[in-house]
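Exercise 7.
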Amino acid sequence: MSEPIKPVAVALRYKTGDRAPVVVASGRGRIGQTIIDVAREHGVPLEQNPALAEALSTIELDDEIPEPLFKAVAEILGFILRAAEPVGPVGPRRQ
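Solution. The predicted structure, written as tokens, is:
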């Protein structure tokens, strides 16, 4: 019998003007699930990326993410920001 999956969760904070996102919460198992639950309760977008979560989970709290992870995190932040934009009409505008 295999072990139950222990969720790994990492919360990042990024403010315009910051050099890089900062790790503000990290945990696995029950703590990881609590991070996920709190994010959902507050409408925080979630992204499932186990490899990136594992890499980010090694970073100390309140530390910026390291440069080798910039691209992966930027792609996720870009996706989240695009998904949060209001959807306009599809196709050419009719007058």
